[in-house]
Design goal:
mainly alpha
């Protein structure tokens, strides 16, 4: 009833309800981003309280990142079968359970179970697949801009939460900011239950930019298909060169962003004498410029060749990472890094989603992108553990940053090997949309 009243009120003002759904999705992804980014602030406090080393903590965070990615295609199937609202509420509930349980953890296996497995499953049910699904279903026009807006929620989560979490951690310990995150997750659950809708057709609306209402496609009622449909989508997509290029470049994207910077940047700065609050402030600056850069990337992806956009994004990110060790970790040097790296933090997402929708079809795109995003998180997990291993074995994080920069240069070259739309086709298994490469 509330959504019907709100949709009518918005319609009287000539505002499509898709913008309200995008706002709820932004809120969900914002809070999830805060939960994903928070452990980067807690590494040093956990070491001091429990005596765990960086490699052990990184292993738990790597488990979370792997599940965060591998759940993507199955999350897409769940959204197709049960609806976006139910999946979003379930995801937020799982994250809340993991964080709540961790308030009393004392051993490393509890860290792996709660922050690795439970939070990994919860965040994996939303992640970027939620934003891609909402943008694809609710928007035909300005889809790239909406993707940029929703993707930027990860940066905004970082911008809003990390400096505050770092300050609270220094004053009261790591459990107090964790309790704050729990309160925000509870608020997000209430908002999603009240206002989220699954499809425009549920309200008798066409997608934004279309004139005709698109009915929901028939969904299989067999639970077995929740597992097999993502695997069928993977089988068909994996027969194309396009999929592997997108998967590989997104692996590099994950290895050079949340797996490396989001997880280890605060600890890296600590090695060079910069306090956690100051390092979190630099991350917030990265988040601010990424909010600008990602929305701009969405706008650009509606207008220019997405392959060339990805070439420039990966190339400039590689330069930023190679430059980081030469900043001497001064305020000026790190601020310069934050500007250039921040503009490019997740600017790769809108062009990658647009290419996925273009090549694999609207209905199947969220599952295919789920597998591409799995590559992103496998890269993130590799970097999260690899950087922690480097710090433990060699007493420095720097080799991990040079490797990540080099991988970005290779990804920039790889993406240019993608052909133009429609140059290759493959036969798809029975499903809602054909796979194209």
């Amino acid at each position: 009833m509330k959504t019907t009243v709100l949709s009518r009120a918005l319609a009287r003002r000539h505002i499509h309800y898709g913008w309200a759904v995008a706002g709820m999705t932004f809120l969900t992804m914002l809070v999830t981003a805060g939960a994903v980014g928070a452990p980067g602030v807690f590494i040093l406090p956990l070491q001091k309280e429990f005596g765990w080393n960086t490699a052990d903590i990184s292993a738990a965070l790597a488990v979370r990142l792997v599940l965060f990615g591998l759940m993507g295609p199955f999350a897409a199937a769940f959204m197709n079968r049960f609806g976006v609202r139910r999946v979003a509420v379930t995801a937020l509930g799982l994250v809340a359970c993991g964080l709540f349980g961790s308030l009393w953890m004392t051993t490393i296996w509890e860290l792996v179970l709660l922050w690795g497995v439970v939070v990994g499953f919860g965040t994996g049910l939303t992640a970027l697949v939620l934003g891609a699904t909402v943008a694809t279903r609710w928007f035909s026009k300005r889809r790239g801009l909406v993707l940029g807006f929703l993707t930027a929620s990860t940066a905004t989560g970082q911008l809003v939460f990390l400096p505050l979490l770092a300050q609270l951690t220094e004053l009261y310990g790591w459990r107090t900011p964790l309790a704050l995150m729990l309160g925000l997750i509870a608020l997000a659950i209430v908002m999603v239950l009240a206002l989220m809708q699954d499809r425009p057709s549920d309200l008798g609306l066409p997608p934004y930019g279309d004139a005709a209402i698109i009915p929901a496609p028939a969904q299989s009622q067999r639970l077995r298909d929740l597992v097999t449909s993502p695997l069928i989508a993977l089988r068909d997509a994996a027969a194309t060169r396009t999929f592997w290029i997108l998967f590989g470049t997104f692996f590099v994207c994950g290895a050079s962003t949340n797996g490396l910077i989001q997880t280890h940047f605060v600890a890296l700065c600590g090695d060079f004498g910069l306090a956690a609050v100051g390092a979190a402030g630099i991350l917030a600056m990265i988040g601010l410029f990424d909010f600008i850069g990602t929305i701009a990337s969405g706008w650009l992806s509606d207008r220019y060749d997405n392959r060339w956009l990805l070439f420039w994004y990966y190339g400039l990110r590689g330069l930023s990472l190679v430059y980081l060790p030469f900043t001497d970790f001064t305020l000026y040097g790190l601020s310069l890094f934050a500007v250039f790296y921040g503009l490019d933090w997740v600017a790769t997402v809108p062009p990658t989603v647009k290419l996925t929708v273009e090549r694999f079809g609207r209905e199947r795109a969220n599952m295919v992108f789920g597998w591409v995003f799995a590559g992103h998180q496998l890269g993130a997990a590799t970097a999260a553990y690899g950087a922690g291993f480097s710090r433990t074995e060699f007493a420095t994080y720097l080799p991990a940053f040079f490797i990540a920069g080099t991988l970005c240069f290779l990804a920039a070259l790889a993406v240019l090997t993608l052909g133009r739309s429609g140059t290759e086709t493959v036969a798809a298994a029975p499903g809602p949309a054909p796979a194209r490469a």
